[in-house]
Design goal:
The chain is built from eight helices and eleven strands. By secondary structure, it is α/β, with parallel strands linked by helices. It has one domain: Class I glutamine amidotransferase (GATase) domain (Rossmann fold). The protein has a seven-stranded mixed beta sheet, with helices on both faces. A two-stranded antiparallel sheet has the order 3-4. A two-stranded parallel ribbon has the order 8-9. A hairpin with a 4-residue loop joins β10 and β11.
């Protein structure tokens, strides 16, 4: 059975993984006959009140919060290498651009969490498929842009697309229910809630993208 890493960044759209996107990813992996291996870095992040969208002043732990989505079955990303996986997928949510890297603040000059960068680069070097959902393609662009010049999508947002291009990557516009495949670098991305107005729209694009990743693995 193919093992597909799912890198989570917390629990909640404003400060972690977007829960719908994470669950759709896990469901699609299972429906396609593969095994999800949930991963997250062990780090602290600033908590956001999801009713007000404002920071609370408190901090939470990414690995602990991600375990809520994974039902406790999750590994510290520092303990996982590309040899353990057949592919890896990054759901969206602001945690992908705030916790796994700081693209939300720094754009093309973003720094990447060291263990996230290591695993992503190992997967790319091994030519193992990488999936990225919603805002997560910015993480892939910031990590791999200079060396691999990947093609990715976040949908149609011009500002984010411009920041992706500044990393050396190529942005491709894409409708919400579809996905973009960079066959040379074996990278699949889909807009999900960067464009979705309905939960079903996000689900359709994610299901297609996850299947493409697994088929490529």
């Amino acid at each position: 059975m193919k093992k597909i890493g799912v890198v989570l960044s917390g629990c909640g759209v404003y400060d972690g993984s977007e829960i719908h996107e994470a669950v759709f990813t896990l469901l699609a992996i299972d429906r396609n006959g593969a095994e999800a291996v949930c991963l997250a870095p062990d780090m602290e992040f600033r908590e956001v009140n999801h009713l007000t969208s404002q920071e609370t002043g408190a901090t939470r732990n990414t690995l602990v919060e991600s375990a809520r989505i994974a039902r406790g079955r999750i590994r510290n990303i520092a303990e996982v290498t590309a040899a353990d996986l057949d592919a890896v997928i990054f759901p969206g949510g602001y945690g992908a651009a705030k916790n796994l890297c700081n693209f939300a603040e720094k754009g093309a000059d973003a720094s990447i969490h060291p263990e996230v960068a290591r695993l992503t680069r190992e997967m790319a070097a091994a030519k193992k498929p990488i999936g990225a959902i919603c805002i997560a393609p910015t993480l892939i662009a910031a990590t791999l842009g200079r060396d691999y010049r990947p093609k990715v999508t976040i949908g149609t947002d011009a500002g984010t697309a411009s920041a992706i291009t500044a990393t050396g990557s190529e942005h491709v516009n894409c409708p919400v229910k579809e996905f973009v495949v960079d066959r040379e670098n074996r990278i699949v991305s889909t807009p999900a809630y960067m464009l979705a107005n309905r939960i079903s729209e996000a689900a359709e694009g994610i299901e297609k993208a996850v299947k493409a990743v697994i088929d490529m693995a």
